[in-house]
Amino acid sequence: MGSPQIRLLSASSRENPVNAGDNAPAGAYTLSIRIAVLDTDSGFVTVLARRAEAAGWHLSQKTGPVPPRDLVAMKLNALLVDPVILGDEAWTYLERVTEMLPDLGLVVCTGRSTVAQRVKGLRLGIDDWMTKPCHPAEAIARLEAVSRRRRRGRQEHETAPLAVGEMEIRPDRFQAFVGDEPLDLTRREFELLYLLAEERGQVLEREQIYQRVWGYAMAHGDRSVDVFVRKLRKKLEALSPSWTYIHTHFGIGYRFDPEPAGIVPEELRAAPEQPAPAEPEAGAPSSQRVHNTFTAG
């Protein structure tokens, strides 16, 4: 099951990859974008890279799956992937990427596919789906459109104040207030608070928090998340002592859920606290569900 080779560009098109096959004027690309391409079609990716360079973008090519935590560190705007190179793990991989990087624009570019596959992918969180052979100009335009929509949606969302407990979080000022009193947060403290508040009611693992706030994988033994949570709690308790905002899930991470101080969460009343599960041994089989093989036929 292989991906068809791309053979769309004429010799004259290869000499001018930015405007090949279209009438795009110079400067038509307006966003500075970081993209990664997971594809083994070197001819297609080479032309795509030339167009990206002419547009002032940064493009990285990978010929196999990149761990989602490494994608976080790359600080990408968009990812273009041919699921064929992912083999049996294609659906599982795409699902993990959409879960771990909700702000990443994800575009599939592959050979023949069924309606059911495309519908499944779009519902999973894929932003766009292209069928090979396709023109690099179209791929660039779709990546730019996806990045633009993501950026616009994020900006609109991030400017809206967020009211939690007796606190108001103001993304436009990178600050939070209790009444008229500011919490006097550093930029990193604000980003941590805002992430937790956005995921209100959800338990976030320490490593997940670190990836989304610090932007790269957490080193073994790093306690930065715990240290910053303590700082946040201290500032919250000073200005809002009658509320509890951040709850610890031992051995896992933290959950943001404002409650009047002194109230014991329902899950703790219902059953005694259980010890954290032991870390799996190296090489132990994963219990994660694996989707059916991605087939392009």
Describe this structure in words.
The protein is α/β, with parallel strands linked by helices and 297 residues long. It has two domains: 11-156, Rossmann fold (3-Layer(aba) Sandwich); 162-263, Winged helix-like DNA-binding domain superfamily/Winged helix DNA-binding domain (Arc Repressor Mutant, subunit A, Orthogonal Bundle), CATH 1.10.10.10. 37% of the residues lie in helices and 19% in strands. The protein contains ten helices and twelve strands. It has helices spanning 11-15, 42-54, 68-74, 90-100, 115-124, 136-158, 187-198, 206-214, 224-239, 266-270; strands at 34-38, 58-62, 78-81, 105-110, 128-131, 162-164, 167-170, 175-178, 181-182, 203-205, 243-249, 253-260. The strands form three sheets. A five-stranded parallel beta sheet has the order 2-1-3-4-5, with helices on both faces. Helix 4 links the parallel strand 3 (78-81) and strand 4. Helix 2 crosses helix 6 (136-158) and helix 7 (187-198) crosses helix 8. The protein is elongated and about 60 Å long. Residues 1-30, 268-273 and 284-292 have low confidence and may be disordered.
Strand sequence of the main sheet, in spatial order? 2-1-3-4-5
Per the CATH scheme, the topology name of the largest domain is: Rossmann fold
Taken in chain order, the helices and strands follow as: HEHEHEHEHEHEEEEHEHHEEH
Q: How many separate helices?
A: 10
Rounded average pLDDT = 77
Low-confidence stretches: 1-30, 268-273, 284-292
The helix fraction, in percent, is 25-40%
Q: Which CATH class of the largest domain?
A: Alpha Beta
CATH homology group of the largest domain = Response regulator
Radius of gyration: 23 Å
Our measurement of the CA-to-CA distance between the termini, rounded to an integer number of angstroms, reads: 8 Å
Proper CATH architecture of the largest domain: 3-Layer(aba) Sandwich
Q: What is the domain tally? A: 2
Strand content: 15-25%
Number of strands: 12
